[in-house]
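Changelog note: in this version the structure field was regenerated for every chain. One regenerated record is shown below for reference.
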Amino acid sequence: MQSHLSSPEVTTPTGPHAALAHWLVTGEMDAQNGPLTGSAGAERVFKKLSQRLAQLITPVGSEALLMRAVHLSRAEFPFLGGVPGAPNTQSLIERLAETALDVDPSEAQAGFVSVLGTLIDLLVSFIGEDLTFRLLRDVWPALPMRPRPPPDAQP
């Protein structure tokens, strides 16, 4: 299996990491008192995970890792190509949310879940699965050992 680090054509996260990304977004949507779209749920996941990563690898490192995940997901979700890469006054998470305003909500959610799954893949590539799951459990203590894929996921 090639990693995201050495293979720029790889854009889809691995099955277990895609399922984990879906679980995280769904959990954030369910945790909100009012209705929350998938994009907003993904935005909450990105913010929480980025805050935790920033404690370990600095805010700049956290944003760079997320930008790499966005870059790797662009082939499958072209709307992600509209995310400005150069830093400005907005965080990357804010720029992602802004880009999602111009696409169908279900496509935005699928794109963000793909970015999140790719981000998890990158973390696993850098620090291993055990440390990645420890990091995720710091933020989401109820994280299951093996999140199940969503019912509509293709095998």
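Spot check on this record: Confidence is low (pLDDT under 50) at residues 1-10. The helical segments are 15-31, 38-73, 92-100, 105-127, 129-139.
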